[in-house]
Amino acid sequence: MKRTLVAWVEDRPGTLNRVASLFRRRAFNIESLTVGHTEQAGTSRMTIVVDGVRTDSRKVEQNLRKLIHVLRVEDVTERPAVLHDLAMIKVTTSNGTRSEVMQIAETFGGRIVDVGLETLVVEATGPDERIDRLVEVLRPFGIAEMVRTGRVAMACDEDSRSGRRRSGDG
Amino acid sequence: MRRTGAQIVWDMLRREGVGVVFGMPGGSIMPIYDLLEKSGVRHVLVRHEQAAAHAADGFARVSGKVGVALATSGPGATNLTTGIATAMLDSIPLVCITGQVPTSLIGSDAFQEADITGITLPITKHNYLVTDVADLASVMHEAFLIAQSGRPGPVLIDLPKDVQAAETEFAFPNRPFASVQRAVPEPEDETLRDVVKRLTRAERPVFLAGHGVVRAGASASLVALAERSSVPVATTLLGKGAFPDRHPLALGMMGMHGSPVANRAIQAADLLVALGMRFDDRVTGRLDHYAPGAVKVHVDLDAAEIGKNVPVDLSVVGEVGAVLRRLLDSAEPVERAAWSKRLAAWRTDAALRDVLGRPEPTSLAAPRVIDAIWQETEGKAVVVTDVGQNQMWAAQYYPSDAEHPFVTSGGLGTMGFGLPAGIGAQIAAPDEEVWVIAGDGGFQMNVQELATVVQEDLPLRIAVINNGSLGMVRQWQEMFFGGRYAATRLVNPDFVQLAAAYGIAAWRARTPEAALAAISSARAQRGPALVEFQTTRQGDEANVYPIVPSEAALDEMIRRPEPGRDLQRASCRNARGRAR
Ligand SMILES: Cc1ncc(C[n+]2csc(CCOP(=O)(O)OP(=O)(O)O)c2C)c(N)n1
Ligand SMILES: [Mg+2]
Fold it and tell me: Containing domain of residue A71, as a range?
């Protein structure tokens, strides 16, 4: 089962490199890793998705905690959380299919962020599975290009922000 | 106060209580060396930066302080790496300071530029490239904190030459700018009660004591707990000294070349309590056959070690000294007559097979050399080993205790460690008798450090176990590779003449009597002394026993053949019949 870890890290040069180096050195298999700023200057936040079968997420968690620039690690898999992925999908269209693609995008809560002569760019955010389905539905039209950010996560209740550590073995 | 980067380096070293550093200068670190004379810090000039790292390591192991090594950029820095990796795997606190090309040239493949923070990323606990002199004081403060706190390890600080020269407003930092220290969790009462309950109920318990116990200085608590609850103690190689080897409850070293008593006890145990050790593959043997009947309790400071190699039933993450004291508070006195009877029988069997129990032969078996050094020094020497058979014999035949540390490269198994680590050890303990025990192969990996010994006027004693080969590899070739001796025969220099060339008094011994005489001559020497022992080159006395073949269970040891039995047949049959 996929597990989602959130790590708060100090925003310093080389921090991502240290995390990546740890995964390589310990042969951890990572499905996705996203980094971005947080509400606090100087702190970045990583969302790490681990295939919980081949890679023991507890080991990932414990080893991350040993890195000096890692401030906190939380496994949000078992808790109510928003787990979203963002995708931009460039779909090839003709006059006949354009409106159909636009409709599909809308149905999936996506939006059209660029319209070209022969393409449309659909942007969608949501749980991975929803994005997966959208991609499947759009594929027959022809996907010229696609990019996905990988999962970002935020726990729903206040608990996660107060920094309470979870055992992670739920 | 305005200070330059180089001044801040020395200010901070002094403030951290650093009295000695090991290193070699070069272009990119000259501003720091330029202030050496005024610094009041002792500098030991090595002949190779690898030796600076190992010497700092030996110093750290014996003094309990942080070892410091200095090197220039590029080749100076890369030469440190073997020593850094050695310290990393053995959790030794080091701070390595390297010069770097000026910040304006970084990334340009400038003369003697090497990306040392990139290179050492996976072999340091943490590292820094300081590009702003204003950060330097806090970085150094942080580095010393990180190196020593929690599970110790090496930290590297890379300092570009212009940062060493740049000036800044300087004040001693009070706090690091990151929360670098990890809070050590307090073990839960309930878990500890559970451990005590299991200890009381177990019929065949064994304590496994590792390096964590040594580093925590918790030997006395372990002895008290073992005695109160009648639990025998096996140690890892790095755990030598955690429990007195001569104590009646001592089982000796566990693992590949462990004592047969320890290995059998572990395999027969119904409870293992692992203390500050990490179930390295060299101590477990074949994992799926490891201690099959035992409930396993793991006490370690590093949560990432729990369950890493061996699944455990109960874990206590915490400082092992504190855990031992808490266990001692509540442990109940227990007697275990049946278990001690079984252990005693194994002890008798082990003694029967011991080389030392055999009638005196004419040739010199290495275990006799170690035993002679032990007898002559009355067990009071600090022993520093190299790697290979010599290391295993030293571990087996020089009993240790908490007062007499045993210094060895365990995790990385770095040949060439012994002599430079011995230099550091002798500097940490100037009034102690320090013996380096090295093989003829590994000794030559850092033999140039004999010059450092002389320049620093260190009364180091060096025993070279000359078996004319890379003995440990040769033993594997004999036992597991059909006797095909590829690239293990050594044509050696005359070690006595070599020592003499450096101005070191030296002796050679080929017989047990000569060995004793040479050892006492070496001990009588005021300055450094070296003894070359020409030891047995083949036959069962040239091999380390017992040996657990790779992929064999811990009690599937190949034992030393009993006297008179044919070695080849005995060991091959064992190997084939049991390794599968
Ligand atoms: C730097 C390094 N290179 C290679 C090895 C592999 N190795 C392990 S033991 C050994 C033989 C050591 O020979 P020697 O120093 O003569 O010691 P002996 O085993 O003969 O006592 C070798 C080559 C090593 N441990 N370290
Ligand atoms: Mg040898």
Answer: 2-75
